[in-house]
Write a structure and sequence with these properties.
The chain is mainly alpha-helical. It has a domain of 58 residues. 39% of the residues lie in helices and 0% in strands. It is built from 5 helices and no strands. α1 crosses α3.
Length: 118
């Protein structure tokens, strides 16, 4: 069975949603295309078997199993006078200055020509 019609693929996916009541299956499964799911069903297999390991629940649980303890606020951090940070060096942007032309246009009355700057 070939899925050449987009409506046919949507119908298959809607049937899957009604069966399993998973409206957000595509967003959380790792399989993003409707036609991929339709092809997997065509070979009589489950789409969950083709999901990458990073999208599965055991991987999620292993990732967030460690506890991250909060740190002290900035008021309690030690002050280091030896290494003070300086702000970055400000450099003029390369290219045509844009502000100069707009200022001149605002100062000019409505003319069809530019004034020359000498």
């Amino acid at each position: 069975m070939m899925f050449t019609n987009k409506e046919m693929i949507r119908d298959v996916f809607k049937d899957y949603d009604m069966e399993n009541q998973k409206n957000v299956f595509i967003n959380k499964s790792g399989i993003t295309c409707f036609h991929v799911i339709a092809c997997i069903w065509n070979i009589k297999k489950q789409p969950e078997d083709y999901v990458a390991a990073r999208y599965r629940k055991p991987t999620f649980m292993d990732t967030y199993s460690n506890i991250v303890y909060p740190t002290n606020g900035p008021k309690l951090w030690p002050i280091d006078d030896l290494n003070t940070m300086a702000p970055p060096v400000m450099r003029r942007a390369i290219g045509r200055p844009k502000n100069r032309e707009t200022r001149q246009m605002m100062n000019l009355e409505i003319h069809t020509y530019y004034q020359r700057d000498f």
